[in-house]
Amino acid sequence: MSIFSNSDKSGNGQNYIDPDALGLIDINREFKTHLGIEDTLFNRFSKEDVNDLLVQSGMFEMLALRGFYETKLEIQGISEVDNRIFIKTPNGAVLVHMRLKFSDFSFKKIGESFPMIYIDWLLSQNVRLGKLKEKKRLFEGQEYPGLNVMNEITIFIRLLASKIGAAGAFNIPEYFHDAVLFHKNFRFLSPEKEGEFRALLRSFRKENLRSLSGAIHSGQVVEAETSKVYNWTYGEMVSCINNYLEKSLFDHEYNSTVAKISNTKEFSRIKK
Prior knowledge:
By secondary structure, this protein is α+β, with helices and mostly antiparallel strands. The protein has 2 domains: 1-172, no CATH class; 190-235 and 242-272, no CATH class. The chain is 30% helix and 22% strand. The chain has 8 helices and 10 strands. The strands form 2 sheets. Strands 1, 2, 3, 4, 5, 6, 7 and 9 form an 8-stranded mixed sheet that branches. The chain is globular and about 55 Å long.
């Protein structure tokens, strides 16, 4: 069973990802569950270890600024390479939900494999604000507004990657706005995808992100040159802590391709 075959991205556990379409390959095809690891992360780190990393990341400090002074940490072990991390309020409301997986991945571009953390699912929600009745004020997939703790989550994952011996982390954003949140520290593995993504940001630099993401996912954005409706497709976004991997993946050829596409491609809204 592939590491991509079971996901928290949808309620029925099915995934939208075709592993053959990715730029990296999961080498560890065996994805088994084990008993006795429920309270540990990757069967290596105790709840106290994880709590310390979250403290270092500034997560609890930021949650306190949002009004959540008391929280509880829960770890749900699915297998030695698959875990859920929850930060909840004292009464059990979920504030942060992460599903992280750890495996060796072979990068097609360079023909080498590295241990990586895969961010299967990431959720933060400000339950103090309550569920908004006006869904237009939320991003696709949200029930509550977010907590704006992406920076702290990224720091935590990079600290964890260093502790576990991973070369970095990657995710496969389901929506355009997810990719925007990750883009400060992650880049698309495909230079064509990265260039196209930057061109979208440039073309709509004055537009509200929620409005833009909604337009993209409802087929309201077109390529200016061809008038073809832009179709959002998924792709891996990678953040490296291994310098060799960073330089190998994001080399001069990569940067040149990104620059050419991002500086020349234009997008526009469908005129009503």
